[in-house]
Design goal:
Elements lengths: L3 H24 L4 H11 L3 H13 L5 H15 L4 H10 L4 H8 L6 H13 L7 H14 L4 H15 L1
Helix pairs in contact: 1-3, 2-3, 4-5, 7-9, 8-9
Length: 164
């Protein structure tokens, strides 16, 4: 037999969880995992979290696939991360590996082009340094953005031919 007091408490708890989740989503789009973590941190029960996630998915406020596509574009086009860097970026935002593999499956982006864009963006602020220091700083920048070694070397060779 279900206690009406327990059922009423669950409904109130669920409403609070929905309100909190909607508040979080009003700031920025979030993945299902991010919402679940924030709700757990706030102290909501697993059943309340599950019902809240189901509700938010039902009305279309949580869509990890479209969020992943947007984050991928941001990582590659704005942040100029490598493919590996973009994948890590999506993982940090709570996107599942299955979705990440799905959206990168047809990826045509060339890391060398993005590396070159990043170098072009950064090189103007490095003109006061010697060529060795410029190359070292650009190498470290590209390494932090998770570019492969061979991509970094190719991008830096293009700079060498431009300086000569």
């Amino acid at each position: 037999m279900i206690d009406l007091h327990d059922k009423g408490a669950f409904i109130i708890d669920a409403q609070k969880a929905r309100q909190y989740a909607l508040k979080l989503l009003s700031y920025k789009a979030r993945s299902q995992k991010e919402i679940e973590e924030r709700l757990k941190k706030k102290g909501f029960t697993n059943s309340t979290i599950t019902s809240t996630i189901k509700y938010l998915k039902g009305i279309g406020l949580i869509d990890d696939l479209s969020l992943a596509k947007n984050l991928k574009n941001k990582a590659l086009d704005t942040k100029l991360l490598s493919i590996n860097g973009a994948k890590s970026y999506l993982i940090r935002h709570g996107i599942s590996r299955d979705i990440i593999e799905e959206i990168f499956q047809s990826e045509e982006s060339d890391d060398l082009i993005n590396a070159q864009k990043l170098i072009d963006r950064k090189i103007n602020s490095l003109v006061k340094y010697s060529p060795e220091i410029i190359r070292k700083r650009l190498y470290n920048l590209l390494l932090r953005r998770r570019y492969q070694y061979d991509t970094i070397i190719k991008a830096l060779k293009k700079i060498k031919t431009e300086e000569d």
